[in-house]
Design goal:
Layout: H1 2-28, H2 40-49, H3 53-86, H4 95-120, H5 123-146
């Protein structure tokens, strides 16, 4: 009987350690939870535009501002999604309009962010920016598919 209790306790301990380890692993692999770490899209952009150290610092501030705005939108989106699905029994779709509006707001915030990045650039960098922006957006889209709760992004 003592052996069974010890085995049970050991099994429970191993289970708890596995859950904690998986939780930490998943948390550490989410770039949007690491505000000082640029995303692949941001790294690509800085590298391709050959930003100076001053430009990089300013760009990091732009990224922080963008992430903050996107997080606020994501919080609103989460609330609206809960409201939408809470109203499923009553066929209440009122939250859909708000969700559509937030999608547009997300796109606008991202558009403004890249306008600011372009303004940060010198003439040569602006020309390069204009050529690579679609690639940057593709990279951001790949990030969003891996991390569907928002941008980011960068």
């Amino acid at each position: 009987m003592n052996v069974l209790k010890i085995m049970g306790a050991a099994l429970l301990l191993l289970f708890v350690l596995n859950v904690v380890s998986l939780g930490l692993l998943l948390r550490l692999n989410r770039p949007h939870d690491q505000p000082n770490r640029p995303s692949a899209a941001a790294e690509f952009l800085m590298h391709e535009l050959k930003f100076s150290p001053v430009q990089r610092d300013y760009y990091q501030q732009l990224i922080k501002q963008h992430r903050s705005k996107i997080r606020a939108i994501e919080a609103q989106r989460t609330e609206l999604r809960h409201a939408l699905f809470a109203g499923i029994a009553q066929n209440d779709t009122a939250a859909l309009a708000g969700l559509r509006q937030l999608e547009g707001k997300t796109e606008w915030v991202t558009f403004q962010h890249f306008q600011a990045v372009r303004r940060l650039s010198n003439v040569e960098q602006k020309q390069r920016f204009d050529h690579i922006i679609q690639e940057v957006m593709r990279k951001m889209g790949a990030h969003e598919r891996r991390h569907p709760q928002g941008l980011q992004h960068h």
